[in-house]
Amino acid sequence: MNETIIKTLSLAVVLAPLAGALVAGLFCRVIPRWLAAGAAIAGVGVAFAASWLIFQEIRAAQSFLHQLPVMRLAEGATIPASSFNIPIYTWMTSGSYAFGVGFLLDSLTVTMMLVVTFVSLMVHIYTIGYMKDDPGYNRFFSYISLFTFSMLMLVMANNFMQLFFGWEAVGLVSYLLIGFWYTRPTAIHANLKAFLVNRVGDFGFLLGIGLVLAHFGSLDYAAVFQKAPELGSATINLWGDAEWSLMTVVCVCLFIGAMGKSAQAPLHVWLPDSMEGPTPISALIHAATMVTAGIFMVSRMSPLFELSTTALSFVMIIGAITALFMGFLGIVQNDIKRVIAYSTLSQLGYMTVALGASAYSIAIFHLMTHAFFKALLFLAAGSVIIGLRHDQDMRRMGGLRKYMPITWITCLIGSLALIGAPFFSGFYSKDSIIEAVALAKIPGAGFAYFAVLAGVFVTAFYSFRLYFLVFHGKERFGRSEDRGQRTEDGKHDEHHGLAAGQKPHESPWVVTAPLILLAIPSIFIGYFTLEPFVVYGLGYFNGVIFVDGAAHGVMGEFTDHFKGALAMGLHAFVGAPFWLALAGVFCAWFLYLKRPGLPAAIQRRFPLLHALLENKYFADKFYETVFAGGARLLGRGLWRGVDVALIDSLAVNGAARLAGWGAALLRRLQTGYVYHYAFTMIIGLAALIGLWVSLPLLSGMEAREWWWRWIYSLRAG
Amino acid sequence: MSSYPLLSLAIWIPIAAGFVVLATGGDRNAALARRIALAGATLGFLVTLPLYVGFDTTSGAMQFKEVHAWIPHFNAYYRLGVDGISLLFVLLNSFVTVLAVLAGWRSAQERAAQYHAAFLIMSGLVNGIFSALDGFLFYVFFEASLIPLYLIIGVWGGPRRVYAAIKFFLYTLAGSLLFLVSILYLLIRSGSFAILDWHLLPLALHEQIWLFIAFFIAFAVKVPMFPLHTWLPDAHVEAPTGGSVVLAAIALKLGAYGFARFSLPIAPDAAHFFSWPMIALSLVAVFYIGFVALAQTDMKKLVAYSSISHMGFVTLGFFMFSAFSIEGALVQMISHGFVSAAMFLCIGVLYDRMHSRQIADYGGVADSMPRFAAFFMLFAMANAGLPATSGFVGEFMVILAAVQFKFWVAFIAASTLILGAAYTLWMYGRVIFMAVANDAVRALTDISRREFLILALLALCVLGMGLYPHAFTRVMHVSVNDLLQHLAVQKY
């Protein structure tokens, strides 16, 4: 294939959004709104179009290769011919290392590129409507385009250095966007928290990258994956004498980075707080794309993770904990965005479980379907929020289906996809995960299977709790006593809600059009793209994602059972997940529509459980007190205790004072009076005599004898 | 290669300009003094550019050499030259001087001529330090450079300027006296003041150890390394903005440069002998000082402590003895020159308007100073080591080199990812974001064209180095390899 065309296209993919961001950002105070929005949207549009062309090129290249056998891991993971490894420039050389900037374009990358640019494009369009009254309109466009650039750099990287660049850059933009309304103290608290928790993950990530460089001698994916099998049983010495498996340490370190970015327990605390940012970015960054960077990264690193079953177990258990326990928290939230945020955490847990089961392509599949339906849900929530004049509390919603029909239907579609209703896109990806986990045999798989199965019920419950509270039941908005009131947590002073008697109305077309465009893939994309993702060896991910079939045979078995999308959808009606989801929907209906008084009663009946969920397992409080508070306390203690007291006061100023005293003392001696000097001489003589007498006494002998001995010893010498 | 004595020009143009500026006299001619100072500084920077362009990256030898007899009786010569280690610092210093002059344009209203003259003379002397190949010449420049900085802090500083200036002066002077003893000893042993001869001088281990200790005290004070660092926060807090810029961007580099030019090649076996204590002190700087920075409420103090923490990476890199780590240390030095200068300039921009350095007096600055907020964001992120800024490159190299060296060393060093972000962004959030704190903040005016120019120049440097560090590392390779050769061979 023509390399220069691919290179030009790939540069266009990253540079077009960057150019849009620069135009909208550098000139945000001088250019009109339409120009900033136009530049940003054009940039992302170009990126989407170019990604589509690259996708076509890769499909074309694959069609030549589809007859090739599945590559085995033991043969070394070489970059297959259907991918393009494009160096752009040498970033730096040092010692024996060279670091470059370049792109690796293959089926995995291009899938991510399409998802990122498509969702980003939808969010850009939606923003025109959502932010139309905001004074930071141009700045916002600049940020989301910059985000798109960073995310594309992340997924398209052909080396770890650039991956880390993208990784941190999306973190920066996330920081800027969470704090977009920078006058709110809660937003500033949330963005610092998000950045720092991510940095904890990056701490592990960077050490992982360091280990890769130290043991593989390069940060280029191609070189690292090539060399991975040789180092499969290598061990390293971290501290002391204990030997650790190199691959396990590397993979766990890298995965810690993924835990930060993809908000896996216990580094999940930043994601719910990130809802302080405007809703479009909750959809784009904190649901569809950035938070899935960890999932993408682990899939990209499949040649490494496949070499450590221990690391995979770790991944699976962390994912299972996140999938189940974060879902529970979604049940007690009243802020519409926070419910969806916890749902995102839980779904990220599902993807992580799939990674642990070596079902990387299924994780990517769920990543893709989730990007569509979760972006849809967030944008629908945003539409509701506009309709209610920036009220986010679900207790003041209800019955909105009459007023916002498009939002209602699209949100229902999103919810059905999320809970895994058969034939919806979310069904295919989630059911595939559950089935893959059922087939997994690595330690922790039993627990993970229970977690993902129980999670189905929980997901259905909180999703339809949200749906019923918002779109059905009594109309609870526009009540005069609520007007201007703060929400329960007292955070959002700007939430006004509707005036008494005012009715919400459907959002403008720039808001609803993206909803519709996202609803379409939320329904259909699972059915039509299922096979390349779940059927092992079909060719789409051949040579891109590696699975050690002998050790982790999940994908192979999955493929053996697979009978096509239609059969899978029909089969669902006799499977446990479907009935669990139905039970969840029924419970939500019963508790929130049929008997709305019941939840409060349950809450009173189980106060401890409710307190635990209400306080999010006390994780935030624990971190704030122990880590944030502890660090500040330690800092103050070290500063006051060591720097100020010990070094400065005692040592430095002490030395100065000592010199001063010494000088003062010496000065006092030099009085100039003869009798002072004479007296000093007498004292000196007395001291000498004293010494003469006292020295021998120390040895317990008589004075004369001691001195004789001393003289003899001199003589003998 | 150019036949002009470029290094001499780099030294003497700023010094001569400094005296011309002095000659303009009192504050009546302040405007003229400033213009001459800017012209002198700019010219001084321009003459260093051919050094980079004409530098032969394939050679580890000293380039642009100049040798003249100076005090033949002592064997002291006027010997100048730069290699891949010192070259970039001459450029950095000359560049930062331009910024320092611009930064003092409005803030130094009293004795403006003397103020700018001090910076110009300082700049020439520092170029002398980085290019001197004669131990005695080095010493003269090294000591002389104290005087302008002492005056800058002591005359144009804050309320406790005298305490801070004396503390700064005594600390560094005490260190450099031991340095004088060492170079005299080396003169006696080798019969020459030529630093390059000393590199080849065979020395017994115990001699090396004594020399290393003496060098250590002289240079560790300047870096500064824990526990000899407490003069720095005081000096920064009291210094005027330009003083802080020069102190952080340039003066701190002198110590680190001393390690690379003297300690490592002259006493390599002692360097190996002391590598663990040096690494331990470096890690203390990164980790302990990181926590101390968290506790600061004064912006300048916070950035001063952050400076110490970042310089910890320099000494850490030097004492892991690999090409990757030493180049990382050198990159970190250059980057710190840009980033710390930028941080202090940003604080200066605020101080000029509000006359307060207390974080608590600010809040919501973004509302009234959006352009400034954007620049400050970039520099804060560079300070926190974000990729694509210069702050990332050095830390990345040193941490990755540390993984290779000992995993747990890297583990401690990498804590800067969290600590550095915590204190920098905490400060940024409190100052720039949040609701407008008071009427004074509401009335702030955004940066002027002059301030914009200064910050934009630094922003270009920070981003340029982050995006293409190859331009900086490429000149280092051969010289660093030579340094490693010295370190690899036993000298006794």
Give the topology.
The complex is a heterodimer of chains A (717) and B (492).
Chain A: H1 3-26, H2 33-65, E1 84-94, E2 97-105, H3 107-130, H4 137-156, H5 160-178, H6 185-216, H7 221-227, E3 235-237, E4 243-245, H8 246-261, H9 270-273, H10 279-288, H11 293-300, H12 302-305, H13 309-331, H14 336-356, H15 360-387, H16 405-419, H17 425-439, H18 445-471, H19 509-534, H20 554-561, H21 565-571, H22 576-594, H23 598-605, H24 607-614, H25 619-669, H26 674-698, H27 703-716
Antiparallel strand pairs in A: 1-2, 3-4
Helix pairs in contact in A: 1-2, 1-4, 2-3, 2-4, 3-4, 3-10, 3-15, 3-19, 4-5, 5-6, 6-8, 8-11, 8-13, 10-15, 11-15, 13-14, 13-18, 14-15, 14-17, 14-18, 15-16, 15-17, 15-19, 16-18, 16-19, 17-18, 17-19, 17-20, 18-22, 26-27
Chain B: H1 6-23, H2 30-46, H3 49-53, E1 63-71, E2 76-82, H4 87-107, H5 112-131, H6 135-144, H7 146-156, H8 161-190, H9 195-200, H10 205-222, H11 231-238, H12 241-266, H13 268-273, H14 275-294, H15 299-318, H16 323-354, H17 365-368, H18 370-383, H19 390-405, H20 407-413, H21 416-432, H22 439-442, H23 449-467, H24 470-473, H25 477-488
Antiparallel strand pairs in B: 1-2
Helix pairs in contact in B: 1-2, 1-5, 2-4, 2-5, 4-5, 4-12, 4-16, 5-6, 5-7, 5-12, 6-8, 7-8, 8-10, 8-11, 10-12, 11-15, 12-15, 12-16, 12-25, 14-15, 14-21, 15-16, 15-19, 15-21, 16-18, 16-19, 16-23, 18-21, 18-23, 19-20, 19-23
